[in-house]
Amino acid sequence: MRTALLTAAVLSALAAPAMAHDAGDFIFRFGAATVAPNESSDVVADIGEFGIDSNTQLGLNFAYMVSDHFGVELLAATPFSHTVSLPGLGDIAKLKHLPPTLMAQYYFGNGNLRPYVGAGVNTTIFFDEKFTNDLDGALTDLSVDTSVGLAAQVGVDYQFGSNWLVNASVWYIDIGTDVDFKLAGDAVSISTDVDPWVYMVSLGYKF
Hints:
Strand content: over 45%
Helix content: under 10%
Shape: elongated
Number of helices: 1
Low-confidence stretches: 2-17
Mean pLDDT: 92
């Protein structure tokens, strides 16, 4: 009788879904993150709008589970580098940025597969702005303002083993900035929306 009860208890425990994330867990994820701008801007010198290419870097995020279903996450990365172009002129500038993003998240389910959604705020800091084609000295003094905007996210974790997981996630980030420079000595400011989709595939560790 005791053996039968013990066997039943073990089988019941094995059949019960394991909670992939519990209140108090810290989760560290690292992988490839791609920023794909969905850009638009004011027309520049009657030529056209800015174009901004995509870039992939090492993405990092750190999450803390406030409860079994609610978490907070900070997105970080190595600096993204983008080339800026204009129609008919090709590449005219390069810049880098860091996009720290703080998210509040809700995780669905209670097993090893945990889809989630998130919303939060992003700060994008631009630096190392420089013209690569200054049109024989006509373009000078390039700078790009820091942006603060909202962000939304969907993602999914799949835990394997006791601590490891794989993750796929997508963000949409509202990035709006002013691109300031001088054109033939005259100050110009171009309102620019970057508004990228950010895609990340990563490996995670829970502790």
